[in-house]
Specification:
This protein is mainly α. About 55% of the residues lie in helices and about 0% in strands. The radius of gyration is 24 Å and the shape is elongated. The mean pLDDT is about 90.
């Protein structure tokens, strides 16, 4: 896999392809090597999950300084293996444990983004790659994740500019010295607000306790168009489809509640009929 500095070059080429999408779009997309890094990340996490789940093995993951790709692969492997990591609370805990507490240098890695004309030496969108990999998993296993794509896009937006303190600093020590916890509000407070959390929940979510095994073939991966092309494409059809899905899920839930009530009412009527001798208990 590319190191964080090479990954920044790949990311810049990806953004250039998306901004100038009318000129050699697919060629630029291919030569950016962004999908190569997605495939490598998913492949390595797949190998680790296979070794742990199917062969009862163990792994020591360490790359370069242990603050970038190490955290990426470890996080993805846990998402494949652990259904709790695919819930909203579990995913937040994963970010806290594997990225924030482990010392991923957020302030250095996301200083200017891919649009900066003079990139800093320490810039590298490793966490962006992580979010894109998770989004690929959400596409392939759309029922297995409690959170939705809007949640991942919100995390991306707060990497580069945020009114919350969660991604400030380069490690836990810096955040403690800056008194981040007392001087700022956590992003998770916003996410878990009763009104906001509804926007980030996948209405189709069903608990899946199994390990998930993603496909890493080229045809199984897709450009994150709702993020990288969000200012070029019309999002209205997608938004309307999401609203319709929510309505259908709510309607389905109400129908199930009514069916359950009618079933209980029927059982009560049968019991009363048996008690008064109208029905023979041997038949029910």
């Amino acid at each position: 896999m590319d190191r964080f500095d090479q990954l920044h070059i790949s990311y810049s080429k990806l953004i250039d392809a998306c901004i100038n999408s009318s000129t050699q779009f697919f060629y630029k997309l291919d030569t950016s090597a962004w999908f190569y890094n997605i495939r490598q990340a998913l492949y390595l996490s797949f190998l680790i999950a296979d070794e742990i789940h199917n062969k009862n093995g163990c792994f020591l993951i360490h790359g370069w300084d242990g603050l970038d790709n190490t955290l990426l692969i470890s996080s993805l492997a846990q998402i494949l293996l652990d259904p709790e990591s695919r819930t909203l609370d579990g995913f937040i805990d994963l970010i806290e444990k594997e990225w924030l507490h482990a010392g991923h240098p957020f302030s250095k890695r996301y200083f200017k983004s891919a649009f900066g004309t003079t990139p800093q030496k320490q810039e590298g969108p490793v966490f962006v790659l992580f979010l894109d990999c998770v989004r690929q998993l959400c596409e392939q296993f759309c029922l297995s994740f409690e959170f939705n794509e809007d949640f991942l896009i919100m995390l991306f937006d707060n990497l580069y500019t945020s009114e919350y303190g969660t991604f400030l600093g380069n490690n836990q020590n810096e955040r403690e010295q800056l008194l981040v916890s007392s001087r700022t509000v956590s992003l998770w407070t916003y996410v878990k607000n009763e009104e906001n959390i509804k926007k980030f929940i996948n209405p189709l979510y069903k608990i899946n306790d199994d390990v998930i095994w993603p496909s890493i073939f080229t045809q199984s991966l897709s450009l994150w168009s709702n993020l990288f092309l969000r200012y070029q494409i019309n999002s209205k059809p997608s938004d309307e489809a999401k609203k319709e899905i929510v309505k259908l899920v709510e309607t389905n839930l109400q129908v199930k509640i009514k069916v359950e009530k009618l079933r209980n009412d029927l059982l009560e009527l049968q019991k009363e009929a048996i008690d008064v001798g109208v029905l023979n208990s041997e038949n029910y």
